[in-house]
Amino acid sequence: MNSTHKSNWIKDPSLIPLFFRSVDTLLLPTAAPPLHPHSDVVFHSLCSLEGKNKEAKKEKQVKKEVVHGKKKEVKKETGLGLSYKKDENFGEWYSEVVVTGEMIEYYDISGCYILRPWAMSIWEILQTFFDAEIKKMKIKNTYFPLFVSPAVLQKEKDHIEGFAPEVAWVTKSGESDLEVPIAIRPTSETVMYPYFSKWIRGHRDLPLRLNQWCNVVRWEFSNPTPFIRSREFLWQEGHTAFATKEEADAEVLDILELYRRIYEEFLAVPVSKGKKSELEKFAGGLYTTTVEAFIPNTGRGIQGATSHCLGQNFAKMFEINFENEKGEKAMVWQNSWGYTTRTIGVMIMTHGDDKGLVLPPKVATTQVIVIPVPYKDANTQGIYDACAATVKTLNESGIRAEADFRDNYSPGWKYSHWEMKGVPLRIEIGPKDLANNQVRAVRRDNVAKTDIPVANLAEQVKHVLDSIQQNLFETAKQKREACVQVVKTWDEFTEALNQKKLILAPWCDEEDVEKDVKTRTKGEMGAAKTLCSPFDQPELPEGTLCFASGKPAKKWTYWGRSY
């Protein structure tokens, strides 16, 4: 490009250092990093759910797989490519993509993972949204200790029986055994409620509405899976107390709606709002509401987040009483509710593809990556100036953008790298773009390419990002809806279960019948269970019978295998 060409680009060389990335800190290997030795646990956890248990081979090795009854040779890719395909080996694909996409790193304690900044930033975006919303509801943040005494933990029998197998205990200090072991919180009902009893005396002390952001530990299970089922995880847990059941019921639904928004509006994951069965509800609670997601590749439901009405059970156990407006002694009504870093895993499973992660723009810490594409004797400095100016323009418009100026990697390598990390939109700037005063934009979700004039760059990029967010949600919703199978008989139920469907069936709502379904479907793939009874109930014609018992049906309920 000659020096007389007129351009709208801001050409300020001083901008360039602001967008350079340190080669020392971001230099990546030319091959995908090897999985940690403990990753075999993760492989087995997801593969066993699909009836598979194959060992990972070394790279460049030819692997035989049976696909649709035929043997097929699959060469494992090297470099930035994934070794496994999502539709062919979902378990190993997931275990690989969370590492190669720089979401987690395996730790030397099974079931514990390092959340890398790429994942932590997603959690922080969700946290910022949710924290602001609950503060509008006059819910205040607090923090309670990690440790729980056995006496307090065991006070509520039904509750602790639900968690007892998962409780981790501290039994030693240095070389000495503790006189009384100390539990590490699996949840905080029994940690908080003795102090609710202390703080609540009269009706003017209500409602008491607290939330804490913390970690919890749940230990006793096999086959941990990053984000989905780990021994330590981050979450928020809300604990509230009210004078009336009506107030408690209203909050349960208000919080559940926030959880729906997290999944559908931020993570672009469709969910069903509904109520858990008596068998599946929170231990010690009155009832549990949930947002349930579904993973079409595995045919499994996954509990996204829950909002529980605890009733007065815990109030009775911990003597949380108050003097009401009539001067009478009464017990409070309580709720608890929470969502975890599982949200991130559900998002990865839903949107990821054979190139890596696919991040919805609303939760991507980098929404736009700008890559210079210099060519031979072209105006390289002008291209770098244009990239820097593009980032500045987008950032000033509230778009999270950065540029990759590393000179030890080719543009093609950078394309693959940022595709692996799931950045929603890539902007390329080469000599032709510079000459035409435009940029080339490439979407991560559908690989569509478009040229955007510099004059209205920010406006057009915002439009594209909104389109990506909506397309991810609509695509996931269509896939989910294609998996829903309505059944009315046991034979239809088992056939749909074997086809990995999300089953909607008329049910008599009896606990013994649910237990019987679990027993009759138990096998290598795991037993079927109720996922939730959706709030949005289809019409139930009079005389409809339960698919499992033949008794009169009371409601429509989602059934399936689950994580």
Automatic annotation (TrEMBL):
Boundaries of every Aminoacyl-transfer RNA synthetases class-II family profile domain copy: 122-360
Enzyme class: ligase
GO molecular function, one term: proline-tRNA ligase activity
Gene3D superfamilies, per the entry: Anticodon-binding domain, Bira Bifunctional Protein, Domain 2, C-terminal domain of ProRS
Reactions listed under catalytic activity: tRNA(Pro) + L-proline + ATP = L-prolyl-tRNA(Pro) + AMP + diphosphate
Any Pfam family the entry gives: ProRS-C_1
InterPro entries named among the record's database cross-references: aa-tRNA-synt_IIb, aa-tRNA-synth_II, aa-tRNA-synth_II/BPL/LPL, Anticodon-bd, Anticodon-bd_dom_sf, Pro-tRNA-ligase_IIa, Pro-tRNA-ligase_IIa_arc-type, Pro-tRNA_ligase_II_C
EC number: 6.1.1.15
GO BP annotation list: prolyl-tRNA aminoacylation
Cellular-component GO terms for this entry: aminoacyl-tRNA synthetase multienzyme complex; cytoplasm
Keywords, sorted A to Z: Aminoacyl-tRNA synthetase, ATP-binding, Ligase, Nucleotide-binding, Protein biosynthesis
NCBIfam families tied to this protein: proS_fam_I (TIGR00408)
Official protein name in the record: proline--tRNA ligase
Organism: Anisodus acutangulus
